[in-house]
Write a structure and sequence with these properties.
5-stranded antiparallel beta sheet; 40 helices
Length: 974
């Protein structure tokens, strides 16, 4: 055991907690039962079997109000793994549930036996026929797929609000639709073909002309059963009419019985049945979608009404005018959205009764857009609109930034409202549809029903299609509160079905939530046909039992998860999973959601329980050490939960007083530390990579991997001892070379100026000379200490750099230009909480500019580009995303190269200062997809704007990354 290994008990929750009724029992402290673990490991390979209790807990939660702990988690890599697991389940009488993004809202992604992760190894998009179609693997997010289609002017039909995180496998399995899909653009209508694995292990590609012949040979009984059901349905005119009527509005409750009417053969029937089957009929291994035109002429308005029924009454008018989207938001939703970045603060003052419609028209050209705007203007003339706060203008706009802000607020409905719920309560998301012309009536009835049961729910939805969502919060640990929810559900379901003949699930699928009410909506005959369909396709019932079909009338009350209070920064989390695709450690250890889920389970446990002990043992590496601390999760989370900041705080809690003192001493004497580091890097060039790797490897084993960096061959040589000479009197800005650029030099073999020399030369060339202070040595942006949770050292350096910058810039009169994006972020924002009151006032006067902004806005317009390269690929850093500077990197690259590529899978490299040296496996995992994209073809230049990120990408790709400013200097050199 390393000498300075942190004590896991340092992160032990306090004793002021009550064991929760849904806590993981002590019997599961050891994780997966030994025999199950060993048999699956032998079948698939041990690396594909996750069996620790921490693995089981982190996979037990999804975006729904339910929680079921699996016996084991399998990370499937290919169809062979899927078939092997299903064969094993048949032979052992076990059950299998597939999970991709875990964004489902009704518990579809949870299982109590074998849970199969089909996200990690299942991403990929292939654009076909010039964008007319797309072949998409099931672990691919909707956002990623649309990014591949957008350059060709195409888009997928389904557009769920969770597009940032939800995957196409789940979208098809739930027939999720979204804002514009309705009943004509959803998966059922836009899927060209599917490849799926049946419970028997048979693989079916519906695009294969011989598919029916092969299926008949492999599964004769299945084919016979499907055709018999088809004949039975078609022979009953009343049933046929009922089925057709049910799909005139959005409906994902139960199985798609219209597949029997639309499909002429067993394969075509199965193609339809797989849509919305929620993993109960098989595994969707690949999809091919027919895409739709991406109309880029957009006009959008956010219109405010005095009440929800008043807003709903206007919906048919905008539908008739040709609006593609009409979204409804009630007062609770609008007020909760204030927590979303960019939403006007005065929405918090909106009257509770207020409601709004987000109306959007999209056209292929200017003429079409003008026609739509005129039609919208005619509708608005007859509306009773209100402007209860100053930010409301009730006008259509073409401004993309404004439109993006409107949609950001709308898509944050679940997370924003959920984040503002009372601490410790569970969130339920309901989803129903009524005929659109009865929407206003349904809104009035819903408000009355909520009031009678003591709920103050938030309401929003796809009003154009008669589809509403509402959120309820209650305490799942309180039997009386659960009973109140149950009574509400009974009455709500009867109201929707008996009063409006509506759908109890319009787009979120049946799941566990509505399974007990399936027969209420569909009637006995149709429901029994669904049961028989399940028996024909999955006769042994191995796939997703109790999802879609469940005869227990109380099934929706089983497995409700408690939400114990955790650290304040994470407590609003509703476990939606929006943060996961951006997390660098998602394929290595844990995600932000899982870090919070694990923490909540610790809080559910009795103090000192065996489960708590095992969770704490794993949490150090799985959660704290392998968090890059990049906080991109904060950007992805609609309510800005910064799990990275929480992990930094946990690092601080694990530090001994001695470690804190040493870190503070390092900050106080950073001038000597900086000089020593530069000398060490210079000496390393002479010692050699192999020797250094052995020395650091031994030290990491003896001390602690999280304290001693691993020596990597990609680490560059030392920077020049002296910075370029500059003159203060003529300077229009102060140039601050970051300490990383004062210690490390440029790429190996690079000819030409260093980065500081290039910045000075470019600025002078553009007539904007900069000055480098003589005393920058010994100063730093404080990120070194901040990222590791060393509070004393962080405070020392944060205050030092602000005081120095104040003096250098003549009290803020000159801008401070910083040549590393992470350091810019550190000085501009991250130091603020650690400043004294006086220094916080000084900081407020500073103008801190990233060198990208300085070059793009101040220098580039004054420079002549004399030579260009053919192609460049860029790596936007996470700090650029926080600063909003990503486009500046592209702008500068485009000035130097004829073709500039931003990888579709670009993300945080997780090198994170030295974290990529402490945990090289983190950077390897984080960059795998981007590296594959970069190395698939040659580029003349690989560009970024942060030295440590460039080193990380060097290691990931085997290519040489450098600052875009070096390329710009060469391009504009006389």
């Amino acid at each position: 055991m390393p000498l300075l290994e942190p004590n896991p008990q340092a992160l032990r929750p306090g004793t002021d907690r009550t064991p929760a009724p849904d806590r993981v029992p002590e019997l599961q402290a050891r994780g997966t039962p030994r025999r199950l673990r060993e048999e699956l490991a032998e079948l698939l390979g041990a690396e594909k079997v996750l069996s620790h209790v921490s693995d089981l807990v982190r996979y037990a939660s999804d975006a729904s109000p339910y929680r079921f702990v699996p016996q084991v988690v399998v990370v499937a890599e290919d169809i062979d793994d899927i078939s092997a697991v299903m064969s094993y389940a048949h032979g052992k009488g076990r059950e299998v549930v597939f999970r991709a993004a875990g964004t489902s809202l009704n518990g579809q992604a949870q299982g109590e036996d074998i849970l199969v992760d089909v996200r990690r190894h299942w991403a990929g998009v292939e654009v076909l026929d010039g964008g007319a179609r797309a072949r998409i693997r099931p672990g691919t997010t909707v956002l990623r797929a649309n990014a591949a289609l957008a350059p060709l002017g195409r888009v997928l039909g389904p557009d769920p609000a969770s597009a940032i995180a939800c995957t196409l496998g789940g979208v098809v399995a739930n027939n999720a639709s979204g804002m514009t899909a309705g009943t004509t653009r959803n998966s059922y209508r836009t899927l060209a073909s599917l490849t799926f694995v049946l419970p028997s292990g048979t693989v079916v590609d519906t695009a294969d002309p011989a598919a029916d012949e092969e299926l008949a040979r492999a599964e004769p009984k299945l084919c016979e059963g499907l055709m018999a059901l088809k004949a039975e349905i078609e022979a009953d005119a009343g049933l046929t009419a009922r089925i057709r009527a049910k799909y005139t509005i959005k409906n994902t409750n139960g199985y798609r019985l219209d597949a029997f009417l639309d499909g002429a053969t067993p394969v075509r029937i199965l193609r339809g049945l797989m849509v919305g089957s929620e993993g109960t009929f098989g595994f969707i291994a690949e999809t091919v979608f027919d895409t739709l035109p991406l109309d880029r002429n957009v006009s959008t308005a956010l219109l405010f009404f005095p009440s929800l029924p008043a807003a709903a009454s206007a919906v048919p008018l905008f539908n008739e005018a040709g609006a593609l989207a009409v979204e409804l938001m009630d007062g609770n939703t609008l007020r909760a959205s204030v927590s979303v970045a960019g939403v006007p603060a005065d929405w918090a003052e909106l009257p509770k009764e207020t409601a709004a419609l987000l109306v959007e028209f999209r056209a292929p050209d200017e003429a079409g857009q003008i026609a739509y705007e005129r039609a919208a203007a005619r509708v608005m003339q007859g509306l009773e609109l209100v402007a209860p706060v100053a930010s409301v203008d009730n006008a259509f706009t073409r401004d993309q930034r404004t439109i993006h802000g409107y949609w950001k607020a709308r898509k944050a409905f679940v997370t924003a409202v959920g984040g503002s719920r009372p601490s410790g309560t569970t969130l339920i998301t309901e989803d129903f549809a009524v005929p659109p012309d009865r929407l206003a009536e349904a809104c009035a009835e819903l408000l009355d029903l909520q009031s009678r049961h003591g709920f103050d729910a938030a309401v929003a939805g796809h009003a154009a299609h008669g589809n509403l969502h509402f959120l309820l919060a209650f305490d799942a640990a309180d039997p009386a509160d659960v009973e109140r929810y149950a009574a509400f559900m009974d009455e709500f379901c009867k109201l929707t079905v008996e009063r409006f003949d509506g759908s109890l699930k319009a787009e979120h699928a049946t799941g566990r939530n509505i399974a007990p009410f399936l027969e209420l909506e569909w009637g006995t005959q149709a429901t029994e046909l669904m049961w028989r369909t399940k028996e024909v396709i999955d006769p042994d019932g191995i796939l997703a039992p109790r999802i879609v079909l469940d005869r227990d009338p109380q099934a929706h009350l089983r497995g409700l998860k408690t939400i114990p209070r955790v650290e304040r920064i994470a407590d609003p989390c509703i476990e939606c999973g929006f943060c996961e695709p951006t997390c660098p450690s998602q394929d290595l250890t844990t995600t932000p959601r899982q870090r919070i889920v694990l923490r909540r389970e610790m809080m559910r446990q009795p103090d000192g329980s065996p489960v708590e002990a095992r969770l704490l043992e794993a949490y150090g590496y799985d959660a704290v050490d392998t968090c890059a601390g990049d906080s991109t999760c904060k950007l992805a989370c609609p309510v800005g939960i910064d799990t990275g900041a929480l992990m930094k705080d946990f690092r601080h809690q694990r530090h001994s007083p001695r470690e804190e003192r040493i870190a503070a001493l390092t900050a106080k004497n950073f001038r000597a530390v900086e000089a020593s580091a530069r000398l060490a890097v210079a000496a390393a060039d002479k010692i050699g990579d192999r020797v250094l790797a052995k020395v650091t490897g031994a030290a990491r084993k003896a001390v602690r991997p999280d304290l001693v960096p691993d020596w990597l061959p990609e680490i560059p040589g030392a920077a020049a001892r002296r910075l370029p000479r500059t003159h203060r009197p003529a300077a229009v800005a102060v140039y601050y070379p970051a300490c990383v650029n004062r210690i490390f030099g440029g790429p190996e073999g690079q000819r030409g100026p260093s980065l500081p020399e290039a910045v000075v030369a470019l600025s002078a060339r553009a007539g904007k000379p900069v000055w480098i202070p003589d005393d920058v040595a010994g100063t730093c942006c404080a990120t070194i200490w901040h990222s590791k949770g060393y509070e004393q050292g962080n405070e020392i350096m944060a205050n030092r750099i602000v005081e120095a910058a104040w003096g250098w810039t003549a009290g803020g009169k000159l801008p401070l230009v910083v040549d590393a994006s992470s350091c810019t972020l550190g000085i501009a924002h991250e130091v603020v909480p650690y400043l004294t009151d006086d220094n916080r006032e000084l900081h407020a006067e500073l103008t801190v500019l990233d060198s990208l902004v300085w070059a793009a806005e101040e220098l580039l317009p004054r420079l002549d580009v004399r030579r260009r390269i053919a192609s460049a690929v860029v790596h936007p850093t996470c700090s650029m995303r926080h600063l909003g500077d990503e486009e500046k990197l592209t702008t500068l690259a485009e000035a130097c190269a004829d073709e500039v590529v931003v990888p579709a899978d670009a993300g945080c490299c997780a090198f994170a200062g030295d974290r990529g040296m402490l945990h090289p496996e983190l950077t390897a995992s984080a960059t795998a997809r981007e590296a594959a994209e970069v190395t698939a073809r040659p580029f003349d230049a690989h560009l970024s704007a942060n030295r440590m990120c460039e080193i990380g990408m060097d290691r990931a790709t085997g290519r040489t990354y450098q600052s875009v400013l070096l390329t710009l200097e060469r391009a504009t050199r006389p």
